[in-house]
Amino acid sequence: MWSLFKDRQFRLFWIASVFSDMALITYFTVHGWLALQVSDSPLWVGITAGTGGLALTLFAVVGGVLSDRITRRQLVLTTLTVRGLLGLTLAILILTDNIRLWHIIVASFAEGMVASAHVPTMMAMTMDIVGRERLLSATAARFAGMTIVGIVAPLLAGAIVSRFDIGYAYVVIAACYGIAPFLILAMRKVAREPRERTTPLEDFKQGLAYVISDSRVRTLILMIFVVEGFGWAHEAMMPVMARDVLDAGASGLGYLLAAGSAGATVSSIVMSNVGEINRKSLLIVGGSLGFGLFLVVFSFVRWLPVSLALIAAAYASVVMYETTVNTVLQTSVPDSLRGRVLSFQAMMWGVSGLAGFHTGAIANAVGAPVAIAIGGAVVVVNAGWVLRKVARFDAVQPEPATEV
């Protein structure tokens, strides 16, 4: 991993990603808490998360088409700027006591819509910079940066909410999104080879046809759908778990998310230093299985220290799975289709937000712990289904790199 940082291009990209992740993780830490403060309802917390997921799901394919059609560097600059302005707007509304529930929901939708272009573009840029052979290490290095920030951001956000005003957390979000574009601007432009001019609709059809026809990619996308829609559904209920189940308040929410990131950090650092792994199927199945199992056990625990350990173990497992899935997807796809195929992965990430609708409804009826346990159990069953198809993941033959 450390050799990657000798490359100035990757180093700037990684630092920009860290600032972007700092903003995003702070946003996820406080946005559900803000909805809980304003509405005092687990249902509305779930709806808030679901609205963002709906936007990401609806617009992800559009983001993928944009990623393959226009300069990725310019697209990232635009999305970072818009996200910064969104955070600043929310900060002003909160600090002037003008915030309303509908503001929170509209902001969630806008955040998801912008993320639909930002997420696949950042993933595609990673391979543009480092190439296929170093992609697993580079992806793990990006996860390591995100998870390290994931320890700091929730603790900082929890302290801000507890001691000051939640509006200042959104000031931090705006500031981080404001710094990242300057680092992207300092990067050299990545050359894009000429490609056949097609309409956006034709681009979309090509990407969809590839996902449907390639059995390996199709299986991975379906697996991501289940893990996001049921496993990551727990994320929307973390504010409810912290406040109503563990009686830990905003600081406790920060501790939970920081513990998860600590586990993910250890896993991502190990992954970034192991080099090429031939049996990627074991990482995919084992990581998702561990994620589901630890979530089920976490849902039954009522003592904060044990909850912290379990959520750390769950996140360590899921990073092993997600790093490998992202690598297999990118190395299985022709360069000309990479942004569009990755947009389907981003669309599945939107499903984790959409899961807020059903998770919030279940939590409102029978409690957040039951909602989390159901999601974890579905992930475990899904890992068993994928276990029968693992040979497809180990048969990846990298194509020659094409600079885009």
What does this structure look like?
The protein is mainly α and 404 residues long. It has a single domain (2-185, 200-395), classed as MFS general substrate transporter like domains (Growth Hormone, Chain: A, Up-down Bundle), CATH 1.20.1250.20. 81% of the residues lie in helices and 0% in strands. It has helices at 8-39, 42-69, 72-95, 101-130, 135-163, 166-186, 200-213, 215-231, 238-245, 249-273, 280-300, 304-332, 338-366, 368-387. Helix 1 (8-39) packs antiparallel against helix 4 (101-130), helix 5 (135-163) packs antiparallel against helix 6 (166-186) and helix 8 (215-231) runs antiparallel to helix 14 (368-387). It is globular.
Brief characterization of the structure:
This protein is mainly α. It has helices at 8-39, 42-69, 72-95, 101-130, 135-163, 166-186, 200-213, 215-231, 238-245, 249-273, 280-300, 304-332, 338-366, 368-387. The chain has 14 helices and no strands.
CATH homology group:
MFS general substrate transporter like domains
Derived structural class: mainly alpha
Q: Please state roughly what percent of the residues sit in beta strands, choosing from under 5%, 5-15%, 15-25%, 25-35%, 35-45% or over 45%.
A: under 5%
- Percent helix, as a range, is over 70%
Average of pLDDT? 81
Structural domain count: 1
| Biggest β-sheet strands, sense, barrel | none
Q: Number of helical segments?
A: 14
